[in-house]
Design goal:
There is one protein chain. By secondary structure, the chain is α+β, with helices and mostly antiparallel strands. It is built from 23 helices and 24 strands. Strands 10-11-9-8-18-17 form a six-stranded mixed beta sheet. Strand 4 and strand 5 form a beta hairpin. Helix 3 packs across helix 12. It is globular. The termini are far apart.
Length: 802
């Protein structure tokens, strides 16, 4: 589809990232826009390189002097013809003078004089932007700053040079232990000091206080030991410190390079409890060192041998949700990315004794074939475009404390390489990859990798000259160009939208002007956000090279009914499963016109009953988010009224925990109204905190007690609130509390206590405004009271259905 004429390649782009596939193919000449032309002369060459794990696409590389263009193209007849034409054009160009007559067909969008003058003024410029349209008289001029950035980016090879920097990356799961030994054997194990450190920890604090409040003195303690353990031959300055519960990432740079660090930002993503809590997830720091963007990601993924799919999901969630707000680049958009942490992938299909035997024989290659991370990478499920150095060290998990002996406990877990360091990007050479066996205070061994990485460094003199030249040319031409942008659709319509089944639509914004433009989705005057809560736009802002103007896009779709997003009142009124309802039955129940049939929703009873029968003694019943396919199965099971037992929906080892997570974090979280109604949030804050007083008030009218996560507010409602709250909400709340009381009877088996359950369910039972963030003192006071509430008999408070 790309036009090739004798001595010039017309490269048609929609201005996506390099090596991206343009998914909507042009049909007619009007669908094409000329972005750049490359002269085919003695400086021109082209090549291809394979894509690892891909049999359908290759990278096509166009090189002209110092400029390189890379395109991901599909292998086929069209790409073969294209390559043949390029080779033929190269041969023709050796014996003829370049001619640009073929460009005359674009005379309506390009001035012929300007076109020729551009080539004459810049004979050495390998990639020459084409002027597409004369400025319309009276229109606004171009964005000078954006244009300058764009032109400087094109000429970057002319004013930068690659310099080698050493980067030390380390990771250690410290198993909740305080720092009691020097970190110098780990952090200063090389003869020469590195230029930059990225040090990640996991499980620096396993206490409930750290989990509930995301506050721990261990952060400062471990960072102090890090600063004392860095290489003694250099001085280092902290660039950024990011922490989420027990995950901590510190990035430090040699003091002599500190002035060249800019645009520092960090973010955290929780993937644990609620699918968002920080007991699992990732923390990341991004920065620009000289003229190269770097990103460091420290993660702690889901535990247990069989949970590799959840680890894959955690990785995807971290990539999707990590948001460097001041620098809106995704992780993958950085020039160099270093991924480290306790990835928790284990050895499969081998027993503990078999693993130890292979280790004694030093048959690491055979063991690594059974490594889950290697297997999942080969299948394209995780970290596909990342590289990992050769592993020549012993597994890093699990050891008896203060020893080099693998786990001798009753569980005797098979040794595994849970702690890993991977990287992606150009110009990265891994020098060493190792573990540090002499660090024994944890059941994990720390791991480190040393890299020699090419960093793009600006030559100030060359930059100044190019900058001045560009300013002069911009002064001459800034009133000659009009930015233009085209969008392939202004109305986006989704198919039938089902609960927890995401749909994606692509909007292609293509530039037809010469001027770069920053784009952003902006909110309407009467809206608080640029899109509804149910919609996510990625990216919501950025830059298009070149051009831009305001566009208005309409988004619509039909949502399929589900019990997961229906009000408690409606669910208690429907006579059949929700997808079996007629439209008349649905409207009657939704408008509270039909009678109440159940004291609590049928769907809630089904899930609680299943957990009561199968999950009371189960550990980690609510520990992590359910897999997507598990959520869909339970949703369909409830919505259709299937007669199949719930347990046959899943692998038996997963079905109880899946139901627990979905019941807790999806069904209760996504009901149309919270268990404690929105209009009574203020009463929650103002209510008394004494359990006995609450009980007296409850006997008179109604008690709804609640602990709000991060604030854990609990409340009771006085008599003037009786008319405001339905008996159905009261029953649901008390029913859940009574189930939790049953769960506490088996705390020795399941490991839960009232404090933990209060923190888990508080955020769900009262979905309050995001702006309400009460202080820690209130949190602690209410946590202490909630224990009394859970251990008291509530059966007399239930109002039976009449």
């Amino acid at each position: 589809m790309l036009a090739v004429h004798q001595d010039v390649i017309n490269i048609v782009q929609a201005k996506f990232l390099p090596a991206e596939v343009v998914k909507s193919k042009p049909i007619s000449i009007s669908d094409l826009s000329i972005e750049i032309v490359t002269p085919i002369d003695q400086h021109f060459s082209c090549d291809t390189e394979p894509i690892e794990e891909s049999q359908s696409h290759i990278i096509f590389i166009v090189t002209c002097k110092k400029s390189i263009l890379r395109f991901k193209i599909e292998i086929g007849v069209e790409s073969s013809n294209f390559a043949s034409e390029v080779i033929r054009s190269k041969e023709v160009s050796l014996h003829s003078t370049p001619v640009f007559v073929w460009l005359d067909k674009y005379s309506d969008i390009m001035n012929h004089t300007n076109r020729n003058s551009d080539f004459e003024e810049q004979p050495d410029t390998p990639i020459t932007p084409i002027v597409r349209q004369r400025i319309v008289q009276g229109q606004m001029g171009v964005n000078r700053e954006s244009m300058l950035k764009y032109q400087l980016k094109l000429k970057e090879p002319d004013y930068t040079e690659k310099q080698e920097f050493t980067i030390f990356v380390g990771t250690w799961n410290v198993n909740g232990q305080p720092p009691t030994v020097s970190l110098r054997p780990w952090l200063s194990s090389d003869q020469d000091p590195p230029d930059l450190y990225a040090i990640g920890f996991q499980e620096i604090d396993l206490s409930k206080e750290a989990f509930l409040f995301n506050d721990t003195p261990r952060e400062a303690e471990w960072q102090k030991f890090v600063m004392e353990g860095v290489h003694p031959k250099s001085k280092y300055r902290l660039v950024a410190l990011a922490r989420l519960v027990g995950m901590q990432l510190a990035v430090m740079v040699n003091s002599q390079h500190y002035q060249y660090v800019k645009n520092v930002s960090y973010d955290t993503v929780g993937t644990g409890l609620l699918g968002k809590m920080g007991n699992k997830g990732g923390v990341a720091v991004r920065l620009e060192l000289h003229n190269t963007s770097l990103c460091f990601v420290n993660c702690h993924l889901a535990a247990h041998v069989e949970e590799y799919e959840r680890r894959n999901q955690d990785y995807k969630d971290i990539n999707a949700r990590m948001n460097f707000r001041r620098n809106p680049l995704a992780i993958k958009d950085h020039e160099q990315v270093y991924w480290l942490g306790d990835l928790n992938y284990r050895i499969t299909e081998l027993t503990t004794s078999q693993v130890k035997t292979l280790l004694q024989r030093k048959e690491l290659v055979k063991l690594l074939k059974a490594d889950q991370l290697n297997q999942q990478k080969e299948r394209g499920n995780v970290l596909l475009d990342y590289t990992e150095g050769d592993i020549n060290f012993q597994p890093t998990y699990k050891y008896d404390l203060n020893s080099d002996v693998f786990d001798t406990s009753e569980k005797a877990r098979p040794p595994a390489w849970t702690d890993r360091i991977l990287y992606r990007g150009k110009g990265i050479c891994q020098v060493v990859y190792r573990s540090h066996m002499d660090m024994r205070i944890s059941d994990h061994k720390p791991v480190s990798a040393l890299f020699k990485s090419e960093i793009s460094v600006i030559d100030p003199q060359k930059f100044r000259k190019i900058h001045e030249d560009l300013l002069k040319k911009m002064d001459k031409h800034e009133n000659e160009y009009l930015p233009q942008v085209m969008i392939d659709q202004t109305e986006v319509i989704f198919d039938l939208v089902k609960f927890r089944e995401p749909q994606a639509r692509e909007i292609i914004i293509a530039n037809t002007g010469m001027v770069p433009a920053e784009f952003e989705f902006i909110k309407k005057l009467d809206e608080v956000s640029y899109c509804k809560d149910w919609l996510r736009i990625t990216p919501y802002c950025g830059s298009i090279n070149p051009g831009g103007k305001d566009m208005f896009i309409t988004v619509s779709g039909d949502c399929q009914r589900s019990c997961f997003s229906t009000s408690i009142s409606t669910l208690c009124r429907i006579p059949v499963p929700i997808l079996q309802l007629s439209e008349e039955q649905w409207k009657s129940a939704e408008n509270n016109e039909s009678g109440v049939l159940y004291s609590i929703p049928r769907e809630l009873w089904l899930m609680v009953d299943h957990l009561y029968r199968h999950g009371l003694k189960m550990r980690e019943l609510f520990e992590s988010s359910a897999l997507h396919e598990e959520t869909i199965r339970i949703r369909d099971w409830l919505d259709t009224g299937s007669l199949d037992p719930m347990r046959i929906l899943f692998n038996y080892s997963w079905h109880r925990t899946s139901c627990g997570r979905i019941f807790t974090f999806y069904f209760l979280s996504y009901t149309k109204d919270p268990v404690i109604p929105f209009e009574l949030h203020d009463n929650c804050v103002a209510a008394a905190s004494n359990f006995q007083n609450s009980r007296q008030v409850r006997c008179k009218c109604l008690l709804i007690y609640h602990l709000y996560f991060f604030s854990h507010i609990y409340c009771d409602y006085f008599s003037d609130n009786f008319a405001k709250v339905s008996d159905l909400h009261r029953n649901v709340f008390l029913y859940i509390c009574m189930f939790l009381q049953e769960l506490l009877k088996y705390s020795n088996d399941n490991g839960y206590d009232a404090k933990t359950l209060a923190s888990l369910f508080g955020d769900i039972l009262l979905k309050g405004p995001s702006s309400v963030i009460p202080g820690r003192r209130l949190v602690e006071a209410n946590l202490a009271s909630f224990y009394n509430f859970l251990v008291n008999d509530l059966s007399s408070s239930i109002i039976p259905h009449k």
